[in-house]
Structures are given as C-alpha cells and as structure tokens.
Amino acid sequence: MLPTREKAEELLRDGEACNPGAWAEHSRVVARCAEKIAAACGDMDPEKAYVLGLLHDIGRKFGVKHMGHIYDGYRYMTELGYDEAARICLSHSFSIQKLEDYIGKWDIVPEQQQELRQLLGELVYDDYDRLIQVCDSLAGTTVVDMEDRMADVKRRYGSYPQDKWDKNLELKVYFEKKMRQDIYTVVGRRE
C-alpha cells in the first residue's frame, strides 16, 4: 500500500517539523526527479514515483541519524501500513544491496543491523527501487551532477565504495536507455 500524494506531503511536513533540516528539501527534489523520470520511461507510474521519492528519507523525522534513519523510516512506514514506502526507506541507500556498503555511521544496535541485513537480502529490486536510488544520487537540495554528489559524500565521509559509485552510474545509464534521453535533460538540472 502507498499513501496518496497529499498524505505523503503531509507526512513529510510533519517530519520536517519534528526535525528541521535540508533532508526535507532533498526529499522533495528526489520526488520531482522520480516523477519526471517515471513519466519519461512510459512504463512507470509517475505518481507512485513521486510519493516514494518524497518518503525515502522519512526516518529522518526521528532525529539526526545515519543508518538509523533507514531503520526508523522502514519501521514507521510499516506501522502506518505503507509497505511500498517502507521498502523504499530500506532500499534507497543500497544500490549494491548489501549493508556493508553503507556510507555513514552505523548508529543502530547489532540486532537492528541484522534485521536490516535480512530484510535487504530478501528484496528483489524493481525499477522503483532503482529509480529512487538514482534520484537520491542526483539530488542535494537541488538537482546536482551525480559524480559531483558522490565526490562530495566521499569528501565528507572519507570513502565511497567503488562498486556503489559504479552501480549509480550504471543506474543512470539504465534509465537514460529507458527514456531514450539524457537524465539531466529530463530532471532539469540547473547549471
């Protein structure tokens, strides 16, 4: 199940009120990019893509966390009955689909890490998982160059796994082939 666009926007506003920060605008940018790419693909639902993009970081509602935002978002969306959004809260940070590639602090207890590892291992990614992953790599608080964003993350955290870097670029090419056009043209990157 998935919330409506209006409900998703309400959930994001509530989350932003609980924990103000750039994460909320980032989520809006991801949502707009996802909607545009889905529309250009022709075989995806732009409304669903928007809602998933909007809620991918909703776990940040619960405070300044790293891996904790993935766990909190997954649990929160599950409790609300929004299983498709819960899935995206889980999958958005793992283009390689392994917990060990997480960039940031492991700020959840080992039992929660094991739960995420198991849930992640059970997923079979679809184009919505891939779409939010690629859009997350294209978005700061505006649309940015993917390689610049990954380089910025590498500078801030000290590393960026090469397999994850390569996978993000592969996802970009995947969606460009589906759309038959440049991803930055579709999302409207500002120079």
What report would you give on this structure?
The chain is globular, with a radius of gyration of 15 Å. The model has no long low-confidence stretch (mean pLDDT 95). Helix content is 66%, strand content 0%. It starts with a helix and ends with a helix. It has 191 residues and is mainly α. The longest helix has 20 residues. The chain is built from 10 helices and no strands.
Number of strands: 0
Q: Mind summarizing the main beta sheet?
A: none
Q: What is the terminal-to-terminal distance?
A: 37 Å
Element order: H for helix, E for strand = HHHHHHHHHH
Q: Given the helix and strand composition, which structural class is it?
A: mainly alpha
Low-confidence stretches: none
The general outline is globular
Helical segment count: 10
Rg of Cα set: 15 Å
Mean pLDDT: 95
Fraction of residues in H or I helices: 55-70%
Q: Strand content of the residues, in percent?
A: under 5%
Keywords:
mainly alpha; 10 helices; 191 residues
Quick recap:
This protein is mainly α.
Please render the helix and strand layout as text.
Elements lengths: L4 H14 L3 H20 L4 H10 L11 H13 L3 H9 L18 H13 L4 H12 L7 H12 L4 H18 L3 H5 L4
Helix pairs in contact: 1-3, 2-3, 2-7, 3-5, 4-5, 7-9
